[in-house]
């Protein structure tokens, strides 16, 4: 009986010693490479703006903007993930930190610079008017009394608002430019004002003809930029360096030609 009690006490002591030794030697869990996982930068884009960004049949986000940012990221040594983000909330998502950067055919403006920072311009654009071929429209002023479709919150919305008055009942605002152009096809509006790249691509690929485009000298050249949160100088510098690199080695021209059929002029 005494031997059994002594054995139990010795065994308990050994177990306690082993437990303490195990706690003292426990090492932190490391990744297989011993390095922390690389950060993935979340890129917000409104994927309804062909040929700049859209979703293919597999649900993948594709387009000119997407290819440009992928090439920049490769040069900058960063990983990116694209997330479809509705235009109406895209800037709030950046400001709140839900997105690290934005690429969505975003025109650089002084007003937007107050709340976000932009990369160097990566694309030049102008507004363009789309109307039926027989419409008596030769300049911007000619649509002043017409029903005009625009994408809400875009430069097209701004210029038409200045022409007709921001609260004009003749301005019909849509979630995307393709929706505005569909309304033009259906006869619900008489004209659409939007960025030239989107208008030209849509009319070339989605209608059977019967429409024309009209430019106007009053439309200034606009510059698209990649947006980052205000004050994020480190990320902005990496993006600008990557953009410089893809322009220098010809990658940018190849991407441009693949989407627009020619190199930039």
Mean pLDDT: 89
Q: Which segments are poorly predicted (pLDDT under 50) over 5 or more consecutive residues? A: 14-31
Estimated structural class: alpha/beta
Give me the side-by-side strand order of the main sheet: 4-1-5-14-6
Output the helix-strand order: HEEEHEHEHEEEEHEHEHEEEHH
Q: Largest sheet at a glance?
A: 5 strands, mixed
What does this structure look like?
By secondary structure, this protein is of the alpha/beta class. It has helices at 2-25, 64-76, 87-95, 110-113, 155-164, 177-186, 196-206, 233-248, 251-260, and strands at residues 40-45, 54-55, 61-62, 79-84, 101-102, 116-118, 123-125, 127-132, 148-151, 171-174, 191-195, 211-214, 222-224, 227-229. Helix 2 (64-76) packs across helix 8 (233-248) and helix 2 (64-76) runs antiparallel to helix 9. It starts with a helix and ends in a 5-residue tail after the last helix.
Quick recap of the structure?
It is built from nine helices and 14 strands. The chain is an alpha/beta fold and 265 residues long. The protein has a five-stranded mixed β-sheet.
Please give a handful of descriptors for the protein shown.
five-stranded mixed sheet; 265 residues; single chain; globular; alpha/beta
């Amino acid at each position: 009986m005494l031997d059994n009690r002594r054995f139990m006490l010795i065994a308990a002591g050994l177990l306690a010693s082993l437990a303490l030794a195990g706690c003292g030697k426990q090492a932190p869990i490391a990744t297989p490479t011993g390095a922390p996982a690389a950060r993935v930068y979340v890129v917000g884009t409104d994927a309804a703006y062909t040929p700049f960004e859209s979703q293919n049949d597999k649900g993948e986000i594709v387009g000119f903007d997407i290819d440009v940012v992928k090439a920049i990221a490769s040069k900058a040594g960063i990983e990116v993930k694209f997330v479809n983000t509705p235009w109406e909330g895209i800037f709030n998502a950046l400001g709140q930190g839900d997105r690290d950067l934005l690429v969505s055919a975003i025109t650089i403006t002084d007003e937007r610079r107050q709340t976000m920072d932009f990369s160097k311009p990566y694309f030049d654009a102008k507004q363009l008017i789309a109307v039926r071929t027989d419409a008596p429209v030769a300049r911007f002023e000619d649509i002043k009394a017409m029903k005009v479709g625009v994408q809400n919150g875009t430069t097209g919305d701004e210029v038409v608002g200045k022409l007709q008055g921001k609260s004009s009942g003749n301005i019909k605002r849509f979630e995307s430019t393709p929706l505005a152009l569909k309304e033009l096809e259906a006869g619900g509006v008489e004209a659409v004002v939007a960025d030239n790249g989107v208008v030209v691509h849509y009319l070339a690929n989605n209608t059977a003809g019967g429409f024309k485009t009209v430019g106007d000298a009053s439309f200034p050249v606009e510059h698209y930029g990649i947006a980052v949160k205000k004050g994020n100088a480190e990320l902005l510098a990496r993006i600008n360096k990557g953009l410089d690199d893809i322009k220098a080695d010809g990658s940018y021209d190849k991407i441009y030609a693949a989407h627009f059929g020619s190199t930039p002029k």
